[in-house]
Amino acid sequence: MSSVATAEPARGADPGAEARVPASAGPGPRIDGSVPTAAGSGPASAIVVGVGNPILGDDGIGWRVVEEVERRWAAEPRAGAEPPPVAFLCVSLGGLSLMERLVGAGRAILVDAVRTGDRPVGTVFAIPLAELIPGVSGHLDNAHDASLPVALAAGRSLGADLPAEITVVGIEAHRVEEFSEELSPPVAAARLAAVEAVLAILRRGGMPCS
Amino acid sequence: MTRLTIDPVTRLEGHAKIEIFLDDTGEVERTYFQVPELRGFERFCVGRPVEEMPSLTGRICGVCPEAHHMAAAKAADAVYGVTPPRPARLLREALYSAFFVTDHATHFYALGGPDFFVGPDAPVAERNILGVLQRVGAEAGARVIGARKAGHHVIEMIGGRAIHPCTSIPGGLTKGITEAQRSEIEAIGHSMVDFAEFSIGVFDSLVMGDPAYRDAILGDIYRDETYYMGLVDANGKANFYDGRVRIVAPDGERLGEYDPADYPDWISERVEPWTYLKFPYLKRVGWKGFVDGKDSGVYCATPLSRLNAADGMATPKAQAEYERFFATLAPANGGPKRMVHQRLATHWARLVEMLYAAERLVELASDPEIASDNFRVVPTATPTEGVGTVEAPRGTLTHHYWTDERGILTKVNLIVGTTNNYAPMCMSIERAARSLIHRGQVVSEGILNRIEMAFRAYDPCFGCATHSLPGHMPLEVTLRDAAGDVVDVIRRDG
Question: Are residues B320 and B463 both part of a single domain?
């Protein structure tokens, strides 16, 4: 008998969700981005989003980084007042759907593979989203809905509570067009540097320039 | 010879490139629509348990994971020779209906809509959902976002996650829904019906009510007469989750209807040296090249195709809209069935489908059995081979799996929605280019966008979810003389 026959149906059970919000995080952004009041009182909440496809080679680096950041952040010793809540999320989304996941967060850190072509593979960098995609990008013309900047502008025009600060931690990728769960060696080697970059931003409470 | 290249590079759905070759007199000689293929998915799957496929295949594409989830679940059912109990069927189809409303709404307002609501000549920075919101108003925009949120909520209630559902397994689902959830889904269904009717009203007033757009839809620039494919139920009505595959000729004559598992008897694939993607065609008609007409085996599988293939819609409001659609666009021709060949009418067809999906969601959620505990039967047969077919928003989607006696995959074959439409998309692009580019003419961005409109109607999605954040999305047109030297470059960086 195959293993499939042993699976136990569980009425009403949620078998998993993309969002993993620590219990201590309070009312942080949910998977459907439906809690716009999360950042409405007290210190601004943050959301750390791993963006990418975990089975498409180097495109999975964002997820790997965020999973490690979540572990490290939970284990980090803290003195004094509790820091603002942080939510962690891994998604294979862009455009409107990604924008909808950011609703309610005071600030967001997006971790993703990037192929600029002008940096060595494995290079880690952190910049504001607006600097990665200057102005309003034209993704619409080929993608399914909109570029993230356009989606953010659309969301804001409709009154959505979106992060004032969005930082991209990018890892220059090499192989993103062949199905694989393996990272190429330079990208795998960059994982911890990217983790440190995200943690540094979280600890500072924002980008160095902000 | 002069070569024009439209190179809309995007990291969201793979890359695609259009090359337009002009002859010495400046007329379009030939166009090529090239799509680099993601590699190695079959190899990636072989050796894994087949019950992983409903979750795994959802990762092929970030745009329609729900469609892959359902096709994979049905193929896995077939591999185990198991028929899910009726409540499981209701649950799966309800999830799928909510997904269809969400996906079609997104396309209409965010991808297809800008060409009509903002205009094909508008600057690219305005030709997006933001421009649409300015045209249709903030209240309408809020309804769009609200419909997406409601759709994702239904998908999450049934599928466990809002985007990448994970509850369908061989024989049914891992969980059911409560009576309270059933009631909530029913209410959401009613609101989706209102939203779909509202969207049809928007299309009527802003698109069909505008003489220029109406002429564009009814004209010949975006018209190709091909065969059409679509799933139909036992009454010949369109269905997205299940049914038999019907093929209808350009004149409305039915070529045939078959069980999805028999697809190898009906579909062959043509290989061309200039692209990695294959061109499916109808085996019984044969490949005659990139030409339309009844003698050419090129077929189309889109919302427009589904309406052409079916006898009607299974819900009352959608049926009324279906009848209005054909009465408006296809005067009686004396043939067996009125047919619509104008590719831009696909946008309207999508709205007819959206209304049907919303009504269907209400029907399914109103069935008390949907909240039953009987949402799975445990398979007992030895797994072998199975085919699962659904209608994805972009066309008929087929998964075919082979396993050993332990349910471990030994072979995988997928025919995805967009692949069906590869040949007709190439033809539509070429026809648009021939109609719009003539000797001595300066090729403006507006003209290029009108050519892109030809394939945007198909809502193409080239099967990947490489979400590396993009630096920009350039559209580059390079004009080269016969010697290959660059004469001019038109570039837009977004």
Answer: no
